[in-house]
Amino acid sequence: MNTYAMLDKIKEVYSRGGNIMDFINQGSPSNSLESILVSYDFQAGSYVKAYRENIESNRLYVSQINEILDELGEFDSILEAGVGEATTFKEVVSSRNIAKDNCYGFDISWSRIKVGNDFLAEEGVGECRLFVGDLLNIPIVDNSIDVVYTSHSIEPNSGMEETILQELYRVTRKYLVLFEPGYELAYREAQARIQNSKT
To answer: What is the pTM of this model?
Structure first.
């Protein structure tokens, strides 16, 4: 199938609410880099839209994150690994007493980072630093960020968890905090999704 025909088919799958990663991977047991990038590019803007339609729901989720971060005491820098469009990140950093230029986030998708940077600027926290990066090769020096956290970023990377954790630990100076789904506590549908790593 040529590239344009493939993109048309992907657009059709996305418009029907289908799973782009499933379509591209065609039965592969894990998500390919290509499927992740294409899926995220098609989704770009959807997280900001969902945030604006459900601000209170997002703030409730982030309040739970902040309760845990508050227990860590004072810290001077923070990084969200897999920041997406920065909707969670915006709420986290807005409630912290940290210089905004010490607040970082990265995502593998340039399109989502572009949307996230625009969103942060609109929300008045444009001094934060978002950049393109990969969970397997984070472009940051060792032990450089006080608190590194994830929010459903490891979940779609079935089979690569150990490598990702090693990389996250590498850049963390004080604390690594993971907000990821727990298989043991999930409903059957969520367990199936986690097992298939196709979220």
So the answer is: 0.80
